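Retro notes (design track)

What went well: tokenization of the new backbones is finally stable.
What didn't: we kept losing track of which sequence belonged to which structure.
Fix going forward: every design gets posted as structure first, then sequence, in one message. First example under the new rule, 248 residues:
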């Protein structure tokens, strides 16, 4: 599904991502973990074709990924770490716009929109301007937009920030079923309990370099330590609320 080879990204003299290699298998939930500033968001931006790598290779669906790969981008979705949406659109107008971008069949669109807005309990707010939404409401709207065209590959950058506990649980259950149906999820999160609960494999990046990749059992490798212990031992013991939820 995703093959990353010797991937690097530099911003002037700063190395954001340094010669990394990993793969994501079709039909798995892959958790990509690291402290703030480790290179997680930069990696996602390169994988989704919004930022060009300095060097290295990215293959998705067996084809090289670059800024102009529209056909690949139609088969995936990206939820960024902040739900920035055009505030002068209503929720309904925003979803209509996203549906048109992905050229969704009208009946399929209406059914998926209704299913997801009901799940996230935002249907009653679709006639309201997005600029009047709370952070959590915007997050739910962005998630709805990302999921409604049923992408084969879903990138989620801190998707649970701002979600209430009920929506958080619903999203986790949805992602489990989504992956079980054969789709693929690439997830970044600071909530290590979330990765422990739903990830098939976990990759830890620190200072732009991959430290370890594997299942939770492989990461523990006989150790009785938690994922938090492993995470902190590989990332210098940074205290950044690595385990606690930050959702409002």
């Amino acid at each position: 599904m995703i093959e990353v080879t010797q991937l690097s990204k530099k911003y002037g003299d700063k190395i954001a991502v340094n010669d990394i290699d990993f793969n994501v298998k079709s039909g798995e939930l892959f958790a990509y973990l690291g402290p703030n500033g480790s290179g997680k968001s930069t990696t996602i931006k390169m994988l989704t074709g919004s930022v060009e790598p300095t060097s290295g290779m990215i293959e998705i669906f067996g084809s090289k990924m670059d800024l102009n790969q529209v056909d690949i981008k139609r088969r995936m979705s990206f939820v960024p770490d902040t739900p920035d949406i055009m505030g002068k659109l209503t929720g309904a107008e925003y979803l209509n716009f996203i549906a048109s971008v992905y050229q969704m069949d009208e009946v399929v669109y209406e059914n998926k929109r209704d299913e997801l807005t009901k799940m996230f309990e935002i249907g009653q707010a679709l006639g309201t301007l997005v600029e009047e939404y709370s952070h959590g409401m915007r997050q739910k709207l962005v998630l709805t937009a990302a999921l409604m065209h049923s992408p084969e590959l879903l990138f989620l950058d801190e998707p649970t920030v701002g979600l209430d506990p009920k929506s958080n649980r619903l999203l986790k259950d949805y992602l489990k079923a989504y992956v079980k149906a054969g789709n693929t999820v690439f997830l970044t999160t600071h909530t290590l309990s979330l990765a422990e609960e739903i990830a098939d494999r976990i990759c830890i990046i620190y200072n732009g370099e991959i430290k370890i990749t594997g299942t939770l059992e492989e990461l523990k490798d006989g150790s009785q330590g938690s994922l938090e212990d492993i995470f902190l031992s590989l990332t210098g013991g940074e205290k950044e609320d690595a385990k606690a939820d930050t959702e409002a």
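Added context from the reviewer: The CA atoms of residues 122 and 137 lie 7 Å apart.
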